[in-house]
Amino acid sequence: MFIGHFALGFAAKRVAPRLSLAALFAATQLADIVWPFLVALGIEQVRIDPRNTAFTPLDFVSYPYSHSLVFLCVWGVVFGLLCAGIVHDRRMVLIAAVLVVSHWVLDWITHRPDMPLYPGSIKLGLGLWNSVPATIGVEVAMFAAGVWTYARATRARDASGRWAFAAFVGFLLVNYFVNIGSTPPGIAAIVAVGIAGTAMLVLWAWWFDRHRTPVV
Ligand SMILES: [Zn+2]
User: Fold this and answer.
1) For residue 135, how far is its CA from the centre of ligand 1 (angstroms)?
2) What pLDDT, in 10s, does the model give residues 43-55?
3) How far apart are CA 52 and CA 169, in angstroms?
4) Which of 9, 13, 133, 154 lies at a C-alpha separation of 20 to 30 Å from 93?
């Protein structure tokens, strides 16, 4: 899943208004933030296979440390403790941990059976990606609900808070549709886009979220 993870990050602002949207996105995307580094190091493997599923040409051969349920629980606790230390709110451990683990649940719904429970376990996946219309329907509906929730949970303080937010939503949607079914030129490109793209999106979110105030 792609924009579905952002949908959950947006919606979480309602229950965690003191956490920056950047931290909420980093939580829901933590698996995909760690993943390109592990691929670059050769610890996890991905292959380009143009007919792997209708939606994506990526064959996730092995990714037990970034994408298994057990490891995401561990990453979740680590990330939660980090957030709790920053905002001095112990409830954040639970919220951030749930967001990190949510990545597994959403990927389990979309991926073909390639999601491990723990390193070496059987692999699971409901395969929503086998249908492009169903994937778009589910993800766009989730994204719309998430953006709506965030827009109501916060108020723009200035033009940056309004327009950088709107531009971010537009950029994610355009990027999502442009990339459906497209084949990346190689693994190095996947790694580079994975690292640089996510860093840019998290920074962008940090910026416009600072220009919006939570509505209590
Ligand atoms: Zn993922």
Assistant:
1) 15
2) 999 999 988 898 8
3) 28
4) 154
